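Hi there, hope your week has been kind to you so far. For a while now I've been wondering how a particular protein folds. I'm sending you its amino acid sequence along with the backbone structure tokens. Could you read through the record and tell me how the tokens relate to the sequence? Take your time with it, there's no hurry, and the full record follows here.
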Amino acid sequence: MSRASVARGIATAAALAAAVSCGGAAGAGDALHLAIINDPILNAVIAPDIGSILVNKIVFPGLVRPNESLEPEPDLAERWEVSDDGTVYTFHLRPGVVWHDGAPFTARDVAFTFDRIADSTTGTLLWSDFAPIDSVRTPDSLTVEFFLEAPYAPFLTLLGHNAGIIPAHAFPPGASLRDQVAFNRSRPIGTGPYRVSESVPGSYLVLTANERYHGAQPSIPTIVVKIVPDVNAQVAQLRAGELDLITLEPALLPGVEDDPDLRIEQVGVPQHYYVGFNQDLPRFEPAAVRRALMLAVDRQAIIDGVLKGHADYPQGTIPIVLRAYYAADLPRIPHDTAAALALLAEAGWRRSADGKLRDQAGDPFRFSMMIDKGNPSREQAALAVQQDLARIGIEVTLQTLEFSALVRDYLLPRNYEAVLVWWNTPLDPDQYSYYATDQANNDYGYSNPAADSLLLAGRRAVDPEARAAAYRAFQAVEAEDPPVLVLYYPRELQVHRARLSGIPRLGIRDALRHVERFRLESR
């Protein structure tokens, strides 16, 4: 990036900052205002949370991206071939693509990115997704070959999920990705339709349209991404015209339904909300205990009361939106406190005269459950879980934390007892990274050899019917030995100003892969 372009970016950012700070819409008609709940890490390889991922979707394209049919389409790669045995993928990169600083994008950058993903010292959460890669070769500057250890059915989908490509030339040889503070916090270099021109921690980021973007030129010159942890504040800012698009919790719908300037869209997404239990702790290790906790919680009441019906009743961790793989024929797991108490008794927990559930030593069954601040649906769901478990004699203490602190300080180091969070999974049933033993996103210590085997079989099955059979069998296993207590499958409620159009019918994280299609009419 030239000094002149930096100066232009700073000047634009200063004007936007003034508008943001005074609560108005910057550059009415020519700036799109979005919100995330935490300060992002601007590096697609080491991004640990949803706020980071949403911004990185705009800044760092991948080789492919999902289309509205939930299928991979070309992005940085213009085409690809797969070997007959499914173990070699050859990608032909788009010629003429340049990084935000003007350097050419080449196959070296792709190889560098996947070398960093494979490096255990980076702390990336992507390593499990791409562990089947045996090697990456670059026959020339516009060709990349991935050699896999075995056929890997979700490979293309995962390339379009979170695997944005980062620039090899931006990192000194041997340098740790995490030590590149300027890149990761304020000045990333991507190839996306927008580049970051300013980042103010705890407040906002300014993204400026990339005039050298390889795809269609964005029609919106500037995006302001505001840090707004509280969803009530997001709704207030949306109604005031300070935000143009948010995802909304159902409890907050009454605050926007009567606004003629807003439009509400409901989109199916591959998501599951759940309570995760730290299975390093003896009380949560037995499958019978986790099954009992699932039976004790009235999940339909949460869907009806908290989600206002904008969610689906869960069977397991594979959501209903992936219908070809969802085990709809398995018996529904009901709310049954008597069955829950019977299972707990088998595991050595019985109710004492005071109504408390105690083990053989007389110690009560109690634990702390963490949730993030500022989200009424999750807070109300946590209260419902607390009350349902209290009815069978389990004492649950709720602890609220800022989302970034919850993930960084407690979830990732597994320094917690229970936590109410969610997964946004790829548009594929592959959950090996989440629930196979010792994998990158398995934050709960879940380990079941049958589940491991079935998840691996699902990864390697090329035939769609064989894949579906593996994942249906996995759901049968997790019904008996649940990795987490799945509460519901939400339907994403997107609320946007009427003047905003061009949003594809995808969940917001995938829609942002197509942000150059967004259109914003002048006020």
Observations:
- Residues 1-28 have pLDDT under 50 and may be disordered.
- The longest helix spans residues 3-21.
- The first strand starts at residue 31 and ends at 36.
